[in-house]
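Why Glutaredoxin domain-containing protein? Reviewers of the renewal asked for a concrete example.
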Amino acid sequence: MATRMRLPSILATAATLAVLAASLSWASGSPEATFVKKTISSHKIVIFSKSYCPYCKKAKGVFKELNQTPHVVELDQRIMTRELKKMVGPVFAEDGQNIQDAMSEIAGRRTVPQVFIDGKHIDTVEAYQSGELAKLLGIASEQKDDL
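Here is what the prediction returned.
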């Protein structure tokens, strides 16, 4: 009888350890960090965003205003890849949160939006208003203060 009562406790402990091991593996060599780095290096303009975030909408609006088409990664709309599911099991339903954790290591913060131009991390609205964004994109500056 004592063995039967310990089994659920052992299973719960094993599940907890599996989750902890998976969360500890999100280091700079994680699949998410690799994805972030590869995405940044593969596109001139990259925005890591959440579709409902007003700040993300503002950042995307800046590029639309400048007739630029960024590569946008909507973190709230990503479904975990099969390869990643094999690695971490069915514990996680999406990898957007894990990508944000990797962002913290790469960009120094995990909040969105995270914007990169030619691999350089920028504050979009501030760079737009100062004219730095136009310089980075190699276009004529039409600064606007209403963003």
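The mean pLDDT is 79. This is the kind of structural detail the renewal will allow us to pursue systematically.
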